[in-house]
Write a structure and sequence with these properties.
The protein is of the alpha/beta class. Helix content is 41%, strand content 13%. It is built from 10 helices and 8 strands. The chain is globular, with a radius of gyration of 18 Å. The chain binds NADP nicotinamide-adenine-dinucleotide phosphate. The site of NADP nicotinamide-adenine-dinucleotide phosphate has 26 residues, from helix 9.
C-alpha cells in the first residue's frame, strides 16, 4: 500500500455484516476504518478475507480505545486487534481519544514500539486538540501520520485543518455527511441541485477540496457507490466558500 490515502475511505462503525464491507472493497474502497470499541474488527477481517482484492492494496486503520491506553494494554490489545483483523500489521493505529488511561509520556512510546516492531506502519491520533497533538508530536519518535476528527459542513475544524497542513499530517474527517444532517442544509440543497448530485456528494467533495480525507459509512450499495463517485465532483471556490460560510456549528460527538 502506498502512503497516500485514496480520496474517500470507508467508515465501518456499526456495520456487522462482512459481505457489505467486502462489497465496498470490490466496488473500489481501499481505506478501511475500524476501532476496538466498534466491536467489529473481526467483521472487517472477514471482509478482507472474502473480498477479491489483495491485502497489499488495502489500507487498514484501527484505534485503541481509551481504557486500553496504558502501555502494556496498548501492546496487548493491538495484538488482539491484528488477530481479529487477520493482518500481520495495521497500516495505521490511532489513539482513539486522549481520555481515561491516556498519558502521553506512557502511551505514545508504546505506539513507537509497535511501529519499530513492524506491527503498525503509521501512528495516528483522534479527537485531539491542537495542544494535545503538539505534545504528542514532541514525544513520539515517529511523525503523526493522521489526525481523525469530526468534520462536515456543520463543523469546519479550521484550526485543526491548519495544524494538519502545517505539520504534514493527514486530516481524516469522520461523520463527513453529519450522519445525514447535510440533507437539511439549504446551501447544500442549492449546490446539489446546481451540480446535479446529492447533498452527501457535495459534503464529501467539499471535504476533499479542504484537503481532508472523508470516511463516510454506509451499509447500502447505492450510497456506497454514490459516496465513492463524490471524488469526481468538482466544486468552484465560490461553492466552497458558501459552505465555509455556513454559520451553524454543530458537533455530533463530544
Ligand atoms: N474517531 C472517532 O471518534 C469517530 C467517531 C465517529 C465516527 N468515526 C468514523 O467515521 C465513520 C463515519 O462517521 P458516522 O458513521 O458517524 O457518520 P456519517 O458517515 O456521516 O453518516 C453515516 C449515515 O449516513 C447514511 N449515509 C451514508 N451515505 C449516504 C448517502 N450517500 N445518502 C444518504 N445517506 C447516507 C448512512 O446510512 P446508510 O447505511 O443507509 O447509507 C448512515 O446512517 C464511522 O463509521 C467511523 O468509522 C470515528
Amino acid at each position: 500500500m502506498t502512503d497516500e490515502f485514496p480520496p474517500i475511505g470507508l467508515g465501518t462503525m456499526g456495520i456487522d455484516d462482512p459481505d457489505r464491507i467486502a462489497a465496498a472493497i470490490e466496488m473500489g474502497y481501499r481505506h478501511l476504518d475500524t476501532a476496538q470499541i466498534y466491536d467489529n474488527e473481526e467483521v472487517v477481517g472477514e471482509a478482507i478475507e472474502r473480498a477479491d482484492v489483495p491485502r497489499s492494496e488495502l489500507f487498514v486503520a484501527t484505534k485503541v480505545w481509551a481504557d486500553s491506553l496504558a502501555p502494556d494494554d496498548v501492546l496487548e490489545t493491538t495484538a488482539e486487534s491484528l488477530d481479529k483483523l487477520g493482518v500481520d500489521a495495521a497500516d495505521l493505529l490511532y489513539v482513539h481519544r486522549p481520555i481515561e488511561a491516556y498519558d502521553p509520556e506512557e502511551t505514545l512510546p508504546a505506539f513507537d514500539e509497535l511501529r519499530d516492531d513492524g506491527r503498525i506502519r503509521h501512528v495516528g491520533v483522534s479527537n485531539f486538540t491542537a495542544d494535545e497533538i503538539a505534545t504528542a508530536r514532541d514525544i513520539l519518535d515517529t511523525p503523526v501520520f493522521a489526525h481523525q476528527v469530526e468534520m462536515h459542513p456543520l463543523y469546519g475544524q479550521t484550526e485543526l485543518l491548519a495544524d494538519a497542513r502545517e505539520n504534514d499530517t493527514h486530516l481524516v474527517a469522520y461523520s463527513p455527511i453529519a450522519q445525514g444532517e447535510v440533507f437539511d442544509l439549504p446551501v447544500l440543497n442549492d449546490l446539489a441541485e446546481d451540480h446535479g448530485v446529492t447533498e452527501a456528494q457535495i459534503a464529501l467533495a467539499w471535504l476533499i477540496e479542504k484537503g481532508s480525507v472523508p470516511i463516510p459509512r454506509s451499509a447500502s450499495a447505492g450510497h456506497l457507490r454514490e459516496n465513492l463517485a463524490a471524488a469526481d465532483v468538482r466544486l468552484a471556490s465560490e461553492a466552497v466558500e458558501r459552505i465555509d460560510a455556513i454559520e451553524r456549528e454543530e458537533k455530533l460527538f463530544e
